[in-house]
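Continuing the series of single-chain predictions for the mutant panel. This is the parent chain; the variants come on the following pages.
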Amino acid sequence: MRIVDLHCYPNTEPWIKSQGPYVEALAKYWNRSWTAKTEAEVVAEFKKVGVKAVLVAFDIETVTGTPPCSNDYVAKMRDDNPDVILQAWAAVDPFKDKAAIEEAKRAIKQLRMLGFHFHPIMGHFSVDDRRLYPLWETINELQVPVMVDVGTTGMGAGMPGGLGAILRHAHPAAIDRLAADFPDLSIVAAHPGWPWTEEMIAVALHKGNVSWELSGWSPKYFPDALKRDIKGRLKDKIMFGSDYPSIAYDRLFREWQELGYSDELMEKIFHGNAERILGL
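Parent structure:
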């Protein structure tokens, strides 16, 4: 079965450094250090498990003061490995204002990237913040999708003040508002959205321009309501993502299989919905 992984970080030194203090905090929280791999090692891992990866760039420079894992970097990694890496999500720091808008245009028109990924908690913003609407208007005009993290994160967890990150920034209500204000914008919610999973289900059902990929979470721990709606009302909206390198692929594939869904449904989740919704 073809497997399109919509949410893969490069797992190389530029990506790790781009997260600034969050990396050390997560290592303490999970009791697991992050070790950078080479690009060749990352690509070999994708090949070994048989996924077609969509890479994710990363830019929260105004929060961390650290250089981004740039759009040029992930686009080159994509172009160097076309048999394994399908596409790449661009990243722009919305607080860079006009520079963010110009970079958004360049990422699509010159680098031919898929769309844009945003991490509201780590970036210290909510996507329905009116100050950011000039950027959304630009992206809407570019006619490309956005992927927005929803729900809690391990980044900053257990640290005093969560390193300044605010969980509410990733509430499904922000995606609901963005989808309502930009009905032509294709929005992919990323992660199961805990502790607001049922609210995210409501948004995905209500907004025709919202779909959902379930990366970064062990499938066996999906809430019952989500497990039920994956095979029912949301069967044409759910897509696969891993949040690589957060969870091992063998575990993800085993636990998806243990959910007992039909082969027809898994075809949709693993590649069919992403092909139809995102043109992959």
